[in-house]
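tool_log.txt
---
The assistant was asked to compare two proteins side by side. It first ran the structure predictor on the initial sequence, then on the second. Raw inputs and outputs are pasted verbatim so the downstream comparison step can read them without reformatting.
(1)
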Amino acid sequence: MDDFRGIADRIALDIARGRLRAGQRLPPQRAFARRHGIAASTAGRVYAELVRRGLVVGEVGRGTFVRAAQALPQGRALVEDGAARVNLELNYPSVPGQSELLAPALAPLLRPDALTDALRPAAADGTPHAREAAAGLLATGDWRPDPGRILFTGNARQAIAATLGSLVRPGGRVGVEPLTYPLVKEVAGRLGVTLVPVRADEDGPLVESVLAVHRSAPLSALYLQPTLHNPTSVTVPAERRLRLARAVDDLGLPVVEDRIWSFLHRDPEPLPLAALAPRLVHLVDGLSKRVAPGLTAGFAVVPEGRVDAVAAAVRSGGWSAGAFALEAAVRWIGDGTVARLVAAKREQAARRQRLVREALAGFAVRADPHGYFAWWELPEPWRADGFTAAAAARGIAVTPGTAFRVDPKRTPDAVRLGLASAAEPELAGALRTLAALAARGPRHPPADGQSSRPS
């Protein structure tokens, strides 16, 4: 049974985010207990905790209602009432002058004769020019993908869905890191497949755990983020990658390798798994982070013999790239626009990581000095959902660690900070506010003085 304070934390988060509004009536305690699969006595403790926090009010004969939000004291809020929140959930980088860089390549596509062709959907395998441009963009070190094995989707998320959908049937099992990209959890739910966590350490997934999980019940595939893992920022070193590649080769186990953040990696990056196990690894990437989310394309480099199967999944899912976006991508890659944006975003990410180090010095923060996110293991007695709700009350949106967990029994008391979307002055102020909040602790500590974390 979940700890009652954890359930209260989630209700508090719903209130802070507006999913439960002032004046809204909560269900009767017995109905709440049935809905959440808990005892009626536990539901009573949840409601009492919410009352104690000042979030709800109980009225005899009428029920329990969400209270109107109380005004924060002067100086407590980061933003004034009605102003936009500082959003550290979204993580789409943009740099000054980005639109001016992108616009010239679009002008030729706006001629009526060109626009007619550009507004059609593109084939899954794009065009020869698109495949060559993508191969050059994705090349790293001594590895360059075969253009003939590159497919295109509307974005990288669709590339993930298409590759997984082509590999795993309903009821199948996909091995993932213990913390994984939340969209993959959603894709797995739609495909009817089960995500199975493999253990990891500070260098990434453990080969021994992959082998053990596969022995216990065969996996259909692995989904991994070897470079700048979201949310922990881990980059798997070369030796571990080689061992992983040998293991999946021995098992004949397909892999979906997500490289969406790899463009930020500055040191000589280890070879991708797709270079080490080319007959099994499906590499996915895209332009939404490098360029912009509004006009983008996704890439899938698939093993030889898998092109038709993945292309069929792209078509059946309606995930084909638009011809306009694909042609724009080819032009941006060819004229150096993407390279210039990547260089600017690398500099921006490094500056923002310096803000994190300054504001959160002394806290347990895991981040790559060149990445756009940070994984913050919260000090006791904070819980992830409670801290997220408290941050939201101060106008700051962060992502609780529970969004990334795969095993529901292991709840990380951590939050992910997305550093890409907020302006740098806003980011600096938000980080200072969050640091003060974490140091101060929950406003209402547990009545018995014990930690609110479940044992």
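(2)
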Amino acid sequence: MRIAVTGSIATDHLMTFPGRFADQLVADQLHTISLSFLVDTLNVRRGGVGANICFGMGQLGTGPILVGAAGADFDEYRAWLDRHGVDTESVRISDVLHTARFVCTTDADHNQLGSFYTGAMSEARLIELHSVAERVGGLDLVLIGADDPEGMLRHTEECRSRGIPFAADFSQQIARMNGDEIRILLDGATYLFSNEYEKGLIESKTGWTDEEILGRVGHRITTLGARGVRIERTGEDPIEVGCPDEEAKVDPTGVGDAFRAGFLSGLSWGVSLERAAQVGCMLATLVIETLGTQEYTLRRAHFMERFTKAYGDEAGAEVKTHLA
């Protein structure tokens, strides 16, 4: 399968201040704050849901196509993704804006001050999926992840008009979207991804019941945190898959993106929905054990040993043929 992933491309700039923000605030001067904090550490991490998902798929060898917008400062990030099996030729490079960026400072009490710069992400709306499909010889599935909201709507409408199967995955953008927008984004989706909280929010904002939503999408995939994932289809029994045992719980950031990467890779291989979900849960477990969303290394033998322990010899033998 040729799978394109649309979504944000960003970098996180994370700093640590050894003191307490509260000690620097003067109660009667909060209306005219002017502060500068001398920080001890700076960690720059690659991120963005589109890039995170593609990185995971690249690790599994399924050759994802990243579709998004970045700035002229994307060269180093592009080289990283290219080295890890991601097709970045459909990334739009802005002439005037930098790549989206999250800048955050954390103090000794774990309070945070942060800003998110949208930057080039706003140009995702200018990308046509038709040109992407022509370049790669057609698309079998497009995942429409959190991105510029207008871009998400345009990509969805283009998939619908051109008959390209698509997966709806609003994640962070669901908070700012209204019911009409959400209804447009999910109606006719082959797959609808969300976590449990987002599932309830989708139903609340659209006014559609769980049954009504199931009638409008092919598959509803709900991640359940440490309990794994549930896959629902109209007229079928739900499929529930648990998570492998964790060796450590280091950082949950990017776990949902990793699940999607594993699940989409399973679809690309042509395995069952249950097996694809198992691959997603295994990859998500590797990410939660690692600091950063793209800092894990997929060692085939280690992956297969843990996957087989969690899901059995038959599952392991089937997945091993695709990872070999």
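---
observation on (2): The mean pLDDT is 94. The chain has eleven helices and 13 strands.
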